[in-house]
């Protein structure tokens, strides 16, 4: 077959890849190819953000109802309708059918090519027996995959990863979760409510959600324990054994009971469960991508500059967006990078200068927002106190309990905490963390304050509405003023 030529070739059809392709050709006659070996829409649409939040939202609603007089009496005798929750989840994932995503790509002029892509030269990508050539750019947006530690017997036991947890079909009664990060805590939250009676988190470190302020992990831990889950810190797996291992399909129990040999704490060193979920980090999906043809190592994260151009490659033709560059492993940040990347590609293709902030990815340098949809929610943006001090900033921290009229009105058992990390030199916020029900609604205001470097004196005039939880902003400013 003759070589096929496009202006832009994007490897990886997740949200980052889709956005990079769309922005690179928007308003022009340029052409783009999107190469995907699984489902167009990627991890977020089918195995991460969308299904996980579809599973967590009913848990949140039920929790609020259970603490609302006039409602709690009607719901306390019942739990979730598991099959209805799973059916709603399947609606959001379109039953793992990506046809609507492909229709969108077609509608904006992006050609979808199915198969595994490999770089085979400068601006050259091979997919099966098809050779694709890019006039301007190749974008790598392959994301990451779940890491499974090299523990004796673990991989042979066919453990669950995040994909099984989000696409759960059969809820194990006894579950062990390896890890204490976002995936581990969120999955524990929904699987317990769906019917996992015995949930044990095996955490290598000394706290949950290690990249957040310590109080956030502590408050999540308190709730997990209150709901009957066991959290064991300072632990690791020594060995795993399983009888009747069977590849029963994603989200189903993969065989007989699993026996874990646990070391490092005073708990039972032999733990037997019905399933084990490994939530121990992510690995960049770059192995076998042919990076050596661009003069790069054949695996690992791709280091990029703030134009999202891969460093160490001559000619400004290779880009990397999303999780694969390791800068901020979050869907919204990948999409943000992709928008910047697409604009950069378009400008370079048209010979325009890269002047102005729209061509520079700056938000993933200490301005990253994130929400952990646990019970309670954790919403944060920017640097923690420890990160700020490590970066050489002279900071002060203002932290208070969320005790305002809006919180009390939202539910009777409301408890939460908020903190601001303030750079003394500029009197601006460099980090903010909120923990409590529905605090995700607070984080964008904090993000605007961090990104906009809004002085605290100016924030006095951003008056929060009453009675809402956002009144906590006023209480934070008052606490700082009282010092």
TrEMBL record:
Domain of life assignment: Bacteria
Protein's UniProt keywords contain Flavoprotein: yes
FAD/NAD(P)-binding domain residues: 6-333
Key words of the record: FAD, Flavoprotein, NAD, Oxidoreductase
Residues in Pyridine nucleotide-disulphide oxidoreductase dimerisation domain copies: 368-473
Cofactor (UniProt): FAD
EC number: 1.-.-.-
Transcription keyword on record: no
Any Pfam family hit: Pyr_redox_dim
GO molecular function: oxidoreductase activity
Protein family membership: Belongs to the class-I pyridine nucleotide-disulfide oxidoreductase family.
Name under which the protein is recorded: NAD(P)/FAD-dependent oxidoreductase
Origin species: Prescottella soli
């Amino acid at each position: 077959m003759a070589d096929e030529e496009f202006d832009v070739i994007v490897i990886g059809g997740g949200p980052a890849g889709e956005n990079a392709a769309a922005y690179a050709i928007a308003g022009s006659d340029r052409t783009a190819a999107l190469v995907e070996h699984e489902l167009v829409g990627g991890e977020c649409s089918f195995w991460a953000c969308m299904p996980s939040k579809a599973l967590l939202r009913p848990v949140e609603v039920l929790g609020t109802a259970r603490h609302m007089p006039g409602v709690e009496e009607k719901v306390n005798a019942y739990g979730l309708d598991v099959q209805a929750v799973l059916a709603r989840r399947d609606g959001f994932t379109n039953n793992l059918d990506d046809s609507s995503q492909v229709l969108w790509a077609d509608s904006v002029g992006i050609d979808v090519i199915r198969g595994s892509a490999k770089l085979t030269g400068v601006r050259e990508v091979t997919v099966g027996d098809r050779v694709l050539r890019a006039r301007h750019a190749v974008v790598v947006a392959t994301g990451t995959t779940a890491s499974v530690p090299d523990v004796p017997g673990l991989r042979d036991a066919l453990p669950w990863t995040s994909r099984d947890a989000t696409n759960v079909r059969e809820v194990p009664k006894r579950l062990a979760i390896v890890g204490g990060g976002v995936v581990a805590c969120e999955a524990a939250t929904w699987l317990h409510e769906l019917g996992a009676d015995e949930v044990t988190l095996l955490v290598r470190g000394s706290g949950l959600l290690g990249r957040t302020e310590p109080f956030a992990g502590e408050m999540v831990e308190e709730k997990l324990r209150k709901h009957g889950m066991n959290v064991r810190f300072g632990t690791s797996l020594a060995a795993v054994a399983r009888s009747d291992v069977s590849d029963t399909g994603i989200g189903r129990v993969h065989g007989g009971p699993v026996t874990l040999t646990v070391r490092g704490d005073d708990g039972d060193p032999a733990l037997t469960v019905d399933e084990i979920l490994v939530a121990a980090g992510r690995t960049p999906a770059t192995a076998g991508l042919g990076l050596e043809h661009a003069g790069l190592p054949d695996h690992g994260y791709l280091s990029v500059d703030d134009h999202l151009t891969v460093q160490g490659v001559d000619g400004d033709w290779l880009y990397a967006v999303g999780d694969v560059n390791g800068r901020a492993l979050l869907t919204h940040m990948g999409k943000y990078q992709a928008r910047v990347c697409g604009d950069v590609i378009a400008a370079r293709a048209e010979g325009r200068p890269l002047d102005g902030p729209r061509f520079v990815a700056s938000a993933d340098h200490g301005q990253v927002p994130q929400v952990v949809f646990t019970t309670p929610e954790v919403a944060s943006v920017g640097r923690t106190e420890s990160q700020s001090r490590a970066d050489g900033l002279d900071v002060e921290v203002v932290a208070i309990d969320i005790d305002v009229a809006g919180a009390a009105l939202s539910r009777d058992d409301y408890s939460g905490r908020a903190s601001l990390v303030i750079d003394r030199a500029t009197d601006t916020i460099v980090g903010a963390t909120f923990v409590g029900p529905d605090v995700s609604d607070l984080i964008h205001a904090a993000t605007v304050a961090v990104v906009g470097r809004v002085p605290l004196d100016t924030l006095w005039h951003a008056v929060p509405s009453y009675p809402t939880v956002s009144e906590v902003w006023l209480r934070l400013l008052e606490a700082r003023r009282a010092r």
